[in-house]
Design goal:
The protein is α+β, with helices and mostly antiparallel strands. Helices cover 39% and strands 23% of the residues. Strands 3-4-5 form a three-stranded antiparallel beta sheet. It has a three-stranded antiparallel beta sheet with strand order 6-7-8, with helices on one face. A two-stranded antiparallel sheet has the order 1-2.
């Protein structure tokens, strides 16, 4: 059996739009990194609107874009790799227990878990993302799977909700 082959059985219930948006955010994060490198060079080496601050020449022309990149790169990095990567489920496998594969590649076996079918009951305050309620702004539907005080989110296709709920309830009992 190849690595990850066991996760192909229930791939049809996962919303691929959610997975592709995750990878798009990785590309955007890479863009912020490239911009940060380029703007840092321009910020310190430009001849436009130069101000000397503590004997260092900085350009006010590139100050605002540089500050935005300095802020946005770590925020998006944290949100992608530490919030979404550890909470969103990429694939599932069902045997005696539920195996979930997270976006960051980690595979977890859950022996006991509870389902959260109402998105209003998911604890959005403890997402760990700088006060932002990250899961509420997405345009996909999800089921919360709570295990050991951690809530994982399973994005599902709208037409497969009943099948997904029946499948997960049969395991959780």
């Amino acid at each position: 059996m190849f690595k990850g082959e066991s996760f192909n059985g229930y791939a049809h219930i996962i919303n691929k739009k959610c997975i592709s948006s995750y990878y798009q955010e990785i590309y955007i994060n890479f863009f912020f990194l490239v911009c940060l490198i380029g703007l840092t060079h321009a910020f310190f080496n430009s001849n436009q609107k130069v101000v000397t601050f503590f004997n260092i020449d900085i350009s006010l022309y590139y100050f605002l874009p540089w500050v935005l990149c300095v802020y946005e790169f770590p925020v998006s990095f944290y949100k992608i790799y530490f919030v979404k990567g550890r909470r969103f489920i990429k694939n599932i496998n069902v045997d005696k227990n539920l195996e979930i594969k997270l976006f960051n590649g980690k595979v977890l076996k859950l022996e006991s878990f509870t389902l959260i079918l109402d998105s209003k009951k998911i604890d959005f305050e403890n997402t760990g993302s700088f006060g932002e309620k990250v899961y509420k702004k997405y345009d996909f539907d999800y089921i919360g799977i709570k295990s050991n005080e951690t809530t994982y989110l399973l994005p599902y296709k709208k037409e497969s909700k009943d099948f997904t709920v029946r499948l997960l309830e049969s395991i959780s009992q």
